[in-house]
Design goal:
The protein has eleven helices and eleven strands. It is α/β, with parallel strands linked by helices and 298 residues long. The protein has a six-stranded parallel beta sheet with strand order 3-2-1-4-5-6, with helices on both faces. α4 (81-92) runs parallel beside α5 (110-120) and α7 crosses α10 (253-275). The protein is elongated and about 70 Å long.
Length: 298
């Protein structure tokens, strides 16, 4: 039986970087009184998280890290989640007589959730998984960028399937509500389409735009030398981790390819309007974008 969050003796955070560290800080700031254990592979990173008070203890040993945990939150890059769930299953299937709820924070879901559910279908009922994705973050990385209010009023998408325990799902909803987030339920497929458009494509555009402008140069200087706040604001997210975003693009490849085709079609349509000096139509495109932008509550 899954218990109330306030009654948990231990939560294990696997990967205590920006998101994991912020989760630990947020849990403490909102009154969680149980133990927060930081689990990871690099001792130096874990010690840094401990020094920042994001967790109460740290370990690199999986069995030790989850021995008393009722909840494990995997805050690593999404491509590692199935492997870590497998390692977790190897540790807990036999000795633990109570279920462990496992969730993640990855920004792609379909491939990962399929892999995890296939794995867990072979390991019994010791582990229950709920896919999660808090829509909060920064171009900065690491626990030094973590903050307790990162999730306040942020959307957190949970991705249940037909195999998801309703009890475990509600438990994870309560986790994110506890730290100030607003849960939304989407299927893994719908998540990857919507987040691909709202998050992955903009990041790709910021990177391509930065590279395009970087290539513009004349005898008197580079275009980047004259970049101001508009360029800075438009390309801020291009400063994020290349390794992380390469994996995200790979995980959501099919959706991103569709979105790129749609974007190219829109650009070509705008190019045609510009070539034929269709000023009214150009203004209409810009007005539609302005109206859409003004509806955003971010």
């Amino acid at each position: 039986m899954f218990t109330n969050l306030h009654q948990l003796h231990q939560i294990t955070i696997w990967g205590v970087g920006l998101i994991g560290g912020s989760l630990g800080l947020a849990l403490k700031a909102n009154g969680f009184s149980g133990q927060l254990v930081g689990l990871g592979r690099r001792r130096s990173t874990l010690e840094n998280a401990l020094a920042r008070d994001a967790v109460d203890s740290v370990t690199t040993d999986i069995a030790d890290g989850v021995e008393n945990a009722a909840l494990v939150v995997i805050c690593t890059p999404v491509e590692y989640v199935p492997m870590f769930v497998r390692q977790l299953a190897e540790c807990v299937v036999s000795p633990i007589q109570r279920p462990i709820v496992v969730t993640d924070v990855g920004s792609t879901k379909l491939e990962m959730v399929k892999a995890v559910e296939n794995l867990l279908s072979q390991t019994g009922d010791a582990i229950t998984f709920v896919g999660g994705h808090p829509m909060a973050g920064s171009h900065e990385v690491g626990v030094n960028a973590a903050r307790a209010n990162l999730f306040e009023n942020a959307k957190c998408v949970l991705t249940p399937t037909a195999n998801t325990s309703p009890e475990a799902l509600r438990f994870i909803e309560k986790l994110w509500e506890f730290v100030g987030a607003v849960p939304y339920l989407l299927s893994p497929e719908v998540h990857d389409m919507l987040i691909g458009a709202a998050s992955h494509l903009p990041h790709l555009l910021a990177s391509v735009l930065t590279n395009t402008v970087s290539d513009v140069e004349t005898d008197v200087g580079k275009a980047l030398d004259f970049a101001a706040t508009g360029f800075r604001d438009t390309t801020r997210i291009a400063a994020a981790s290349p390794e992380l975003w390469t994996q995200i693009f790979s995980q959501n490849r099919e959706i991103l390819l569709l979105l790129i085709d749609k974007l190219v079609a829109n650009l070509m349509e705008f190019k045609d309007l510009l070539q034929t000096d269709e000023l009214d139509e150009i203004e209409g495109v810009l007005a539609a974008a302005k109206n859409s932008r003004e509806t955003l509550n971010v």
